[in-house]
Specification:
heterodimer; A: alpha+beta; Creatine Kinase, Chain A, domain 2; 2 domains; 13 helices; about 45% helix; globular; B: mainly alpha; three-stranded antiparallel sheet; disordered N terminus; binds zinc ion
């Protein structure tokens, strides 16, 4: 696969519905912030310096050893891509929205399976990101750790014994590590338990955020839990802490699901059938509505109401229904109405093999 | 990590309901269907707004640009430190700046980012208390880069062995102590 496949294909590694605890956890992510010594941080760099950093990283990622251990890494400058293609990288969680704000002298490095992506000259010179499906944060960390070691063989990192890896913003200094777990918590939301959990988590140096919200709510009940503290703890401690908390949330969501499945089965089934009807027959569908239905579909898999529906397919729908991806499919700019209509069409096509059990 | 009130967490939860008895806290007209729970530094605030006022508050801004909020709070904390210092010292002097990149503490207070790695040394005294507040700690205990870390890991290993040596001597395990001593010597030779 190359970058052209990446922006043309809605599928990506993290959405494989087979990871551990995939009924609740969508993906595990590790991000490492690194800077090259002797250069100002990206926001304070001249164009010339930015170009030099780009060049240094390009050389580093093309090393034979990296290819042997990780696989071929493809280096792409952001201005080689169209605006829509850059937005698709955001929709696939391969780069941050901030990274594509100004594409000059910025690059992205991606592995064929898209489990590794490196942002060059975002807030820091390097942001190494590893993204795997399900709850497997330790594995994700060991992958990031390995790539970090390989890059450090040729790049001089700015590191201080006392402060650790020096980053542009002091909120990342130390380990430069941000670990996060994306979860789907429909039943904790239904029973209004999410607020309570968040309250508890805040005392552990972790944060919870709603995901995929565009207006005022977290559409589709997707939440991201991540560490806020990057100093005074080892990487292993941060990861372990987050895994422990995630497992607790997973078990709480499961417990409540079980109760709801037992107590309110007709109500839930009704919701899933309605979502199915909606997705199969709607001719115009907004992305919020699609996410809401996708959320119900995930529960539908658990309940066994729909045949042929897999986590894989449901996760793919998340990307497929995002605005930039639709425009790429259409090959041109679309008005919101045109997007809603194309979205509805693509969903119907994808669900053609799904039946009511 | 230290226990107690030093943790810094900034959390925002947004819940919405279809119907609500409550009135919007801002406009006092429409029903409050958006419920925001914000926890900053352990202080919890709950806000109940209508759809329109919530949009105006840019509630989801936090959701989309999480780092933005962290950065701003960091800059705020730093600002407080500068303000405190200025009250003590004479004003009118050129603000403290980094000789490597020219970044000033005023700029830092504004954008919440530093100019270059050297800035960490230049602004060290002011950064320290802020790092403690944000991370509960200001000293790195994690990974050390193999090559650019130079002899740091070796020195740390020697320090740990020396502690082990002392413990062995205290327990009168002289054979073990002599083994450790040999290890320390060979590591010290590596540093040269
Ligand atoms: Zn209002
Ligand atoms: Zn500087």
């Amino acid at each position: 696969m190359s970058i052209k496949d990446t922006v043309n294909n809605a599928r990506t590694k993290w959405m494989e519905g087979t990871g551990p605890d995939h009924d609740v956890v969508i993906s595990s992510r590790i991000r490492l912030a690194r800077n090259i010594s002797g250069y100002p941080f990206p926001h304070f760099m001249s164009e010339e310096e930015a170009g030099e950093v780009l060049h240094a990283v390009k050389l580093a990622v093309s090393s034979k050893e990296i290819e042997k251990v990780i696989g071929a890494l493809e280096f792409t400058e952001l201005n080689e891509l169209t605006a829509v293609e850059r937005q698709i990288l955001v929709e696939k969680h391969l780069v941050s929205p901030q990274h594509i704000e100004n594409p000059v002298n910025r690059a992205v490095v991606i592995t064929p399976d898209e489990s590794v992506s490196i942002m060059v000259n975002e807030e820091d010179h390097l942001r190494i990101q590893c993204l795997l499906p399900g709850l497997q944060l330790e594995e994700t960390w060991s992958l990031a750790d390995k790539i970090d070691d390989l890059l450090e063989k040729t790049l001089d990192y700015s590191f201080s014994e006392k402060r650790g890896y020096l980053t542009s913003c002091p909120t990342n200094v130390g380990t430069g590590l941000r670990a996060s777990v994306m979860m789907h918590l429909p039943c904790l939301v239904m029973t209004k338990q999410v607020g309570k959990i968040v309250n508890t988590i805040s005392h552990l140096g972790l944060a919870v955020r709603g995901y995929y919200g565009e207006g005022t709510e977290a559409y589709g009940n997707f939440f991201q839990v991540s560490n806020q503290v990057t100093m005074g703890q080892t990487e292993e401690e941060i990861v372990k802490n987050l895994v422990t908390v995630s497992k607790q949330i997973v078990s709480q969501e499961r417990t409540i699901r079980e109760v709801i499945f037992k107590e309110s089965k007709p109500y839930l089934e009704d919701r899933i059938y309605r979502a199915f009807g909606n997705m199969n027959y709607a001719r115009m569908m907004t992305s919020e509505e699609a996410l809401k239905n996708i959320s119900d579909f995930r529960l539908g898999i658990e309940l066994g109401v729909l045949k042929g529906l897999t986590y894989d397919l449901v996760n793919e729908l998340i990307i497929l229904t995002r605005p930039a991806f639709l425009m790429k499919k259409a090959g041109r700019n679309l008005t919101p109405e045109e997007r809603d209509s194309l979205r509805a069409l693509l969903i119907r096509e994808k669900l053609s093999k799904v039946r009511i059990n | 990590m230290e226990k107690g009130g030093n943790y810094w967490g900034c959390i925002l939860v947004i819940q919405s309901s279809n119907k609500s008895e409550m009135l919007c806290e801002k406009c006092q007209k429409k029903p409050a269907t958006v419920h925001l729970t914000k926890i900053v530094n352990g202080n919890k605030t709950e806000t109940n707004l209508c759809e329109v006022c919530a949009q105006a508050e840019n509630a989801m801004g936090f959701g989309w640009k999480p780092d933005w909020m962290l950065q701003n709070i960091f800059a705020d904390l730093f600002n407080q430190t500068i303000a405190g210092n200025q009250a003590l010292s004479d004003t009118g002097a050129r603000p403290v700046h980094c000789e490597q990149c020219g970044f000033t503490e005023t700029q830092f207070a504004k954008v919440g980012k530093l100019g270059c790695p050297k800035c960490y040394t230049v602004f060290e005294n002011k950064l320290d208390p802020v790092l403690r507040r944000v991370h509960g700690n200001s000293v790195h205990t994690g990974k050390i880069p193999r090559r650019t870390g130079g002899t740091i890991s070796l020195r740390k290993e020697i320090e740990a062995l020396k502690r082990e040596l002392q413990a062995a001597v205290d327990r009168e395990e002289y054979e073990r102590a002599s083994e450790i001593r040999d290890k320390i010597r060979s590591l010290e030779n590596k540093i040269g």
